[in-house]
Write a structure and sequence with these properties.
Blueprint: E1 4-6, H1 10-20, H2 26-44, E2 50-56, E3 61-67, E4 72-78, H3 81-91, E5 96-104, E6 111-117, E7 126-130, E8 133-134, H4 138-149, E9 154-158, E10 161-162, H5 164-173, E11 179-181, E12 183-184, E13 187-188, E14 194-195, H6 201-206
Parallel strand pairs: 1-11, 4-5, 4-7, 7-9, 8-10, 9-11, 10-12
Antiparallel strand pairs: 2-3, 5-6, 13-14
Helix pairs in contact: 1-2, 2-3
The structure holds 1-O-pyrophosphono-5-O-phosphono-alpha-D-ribofuranose, uracil and magnesium ion (MG).
Protein name: Uracil phosphoribosyltransferase
Pathway: Pyrimidine metabolism; UMP biosynthesis via salvage pathway; UMP from uracil: step 1/1
Organism: Aureimonas glaciei
């Protein structure tokens, strides 16, 4: 699918299967989400620009490649995005962080925005937005709208599961933003849940249901 990268690494798929299993405990689900996010982070950052740093090895001086971590922003769509965020920060501790509070109204499936805090000068940074679920796409689209309103123009979206309906809507609204996901699932059910899916990611992470 155009603009969508499916991260089908065996370790990712193995962990995802355990997360989908309804018998998996809250503690295990949270740990797996953190583990899987480091693997997904590896792929979503694959093409990042490097600069060089002059260092001395025990033998010689050299210009060695280094990431400009401060130029990177990880933006978590609350709440469930925080599960991905933690593993990403394990790998890139110097990244800056944005929090975007959005939940979807269970009746209308429309996004309700309640919080936004991001580093300044988003225009000069790569923003990687994380949320485990892309269902209707409404929450992610709202988050991207907010980031663009504040100047962000170089954005990527990382999720764990995506529904075809959400991908289509997201790509129509934000064709410039590539999507990275571990799976494109079958469809959305009448309540807007991804099938086969893994249920409500936030509730499974935090044990709120
Ligand atoms: O693509 P959509 O149809 O908008 O659905 C996806 C959104 O739903 C979930 O969040 P939820 O609204 O359950 O909030 P929570 O993370 O606070 O539980 C998920 O983490 C996404 O943000
Ligand atoms: O299946 C879904 C859809 C939206 N949000 C979730 O957490 N799960
Ligand atoms: Mg949410």
């Amino acid at each position: 699918m155009d603009g969508v990268t499916v991260i089908d690494h065996p370790l990712v798929q193995h962990k995802l299967t355990i997360m989908r299993n309804k018998e998996t405990s809250t503690a295990s689900f949270r740990r797996l989400l953190r583990e899987i996010s480091t693997l997904l982070c590896y792929e979503v950052t694959r093409h990042l620009d490097l600069t060089t740093m002059r260092i001395e090895t025990p033998l010689v001086e050299m210009d060695s490649p280094i990431l400009e971590g401060k130029k990177l922003v990880f933006a978590s769509i609350l709440r469930a995005g925080n599960g991905l965020l933690e593993g990403m920060l394990d790998l890139v501790p110097a990244a800056r962080v944005a929090h975007i509070g959005v939940y979807r109204d269970h009746e209308t499936l429309m996004p309700v925005e309640y919080y936004f805090k991001a580093p300044e000068d988003l225009a000069n940074r790569l923003v990687i937005v994380v949320d485990p679920m892309l269902a209707t796409g409404n929450s992610a689209i709202a988050a991207m709208d907010q980031l663009k309103k504040r100047g962000a123009s170089n954005i990527r979206f990382l999720c764990l599961l995506a529904a075809p309906e959400g991908i289509e809507r997201f790509r129509a609204a934000h064709p410039d933003i590539p999507i990275f996901t571990a799976s494109i699932d079958s469809h959305l059910n009448e309540q807007g849940y991804i099938v086969p899916g893994l249920g409500d990611a936030g509730d499974r992470m935090y044990g709120t249901k």
